[in-house]
Amino acid sequence: MTQQPDDHGTTDEPVEQPDAEATPDASPEGEAPAAPADEGPSLEQQLAERTADLQRLQAEYVNYKRRVDRDRELMRVQGREDVLNALLTVLDDIGRAEEHGELTGGFKAVADALRSSTAKYGLEAFGAEGEPFDPALHEAVFHAGESADVETTSIAQVMRIGYRVGERILRPATVGVVDPASDASADTTESADSAEDAPN
Question: Is residue 191's pLDDT more than 90?
């Protein structure tokens, strides 16, 4: 049944008020606002990470360049030594020809040029009679006994000279060695010398 308005144009029923609990935007009085969601690393953290990445890449590149330079130098040295090793037999032939007096004329000019060229690349000959014997440099193939003329084991004869480039030995010298005289041998030698010097 429809309510008739009174003289003032209103009905007897009260007007319904909106329910506060039904309002979605309403929040209990005094409740703190929700914390914002995690936004990830800060700008400073990202910058630090990128800087560390760049530093790591730079260190890797420096190490790589060092390895390349080292390998290139090793290849250069190895190539030079291979060429010099191939020329050692030629130098041996030149040395034998020189010992027999056959190194003359144009042959001598070529030999001198070859020796000069190999010396520019650091090739050095070693091994001579009278030098102290060094097992790191010399290969002894025979023993020539003892001698009072030496104070330490020395080279008595050179069969083939050795060659090196800097501290690297390309070929040891092949030699015969002589030892210093022992005390008994020295005494015998001195007695023999005294007997020879004594008047008859």
Answer: no
